[in-house]
Amino acid sequence: MLPREALLEGCRQPQQLGALIDLAEQALRTWEPVWSGFMAAELRELALERLGDLTELRLDAGGGWPQAERQRLLLRRRELAEEDPPGAAIQPPLGGLLISGNFLFDPAEPSEVRTGLVAAGLQPDALGDIWMRGDRGAQAVIAAEAAGGCSGRTAQVRSVEVQLEPLPLEQLQWPAHRSPRQLSTVEASLRLDAVASAGLGLSRNRMAEQIRAGAVRVNWQVVTSPSRELRCGDRVRLEGRGELEVLEIQPTKRDRWRLQLRRS
Question: How much is the pTM?
Answer without folding.
Answer: 0.81
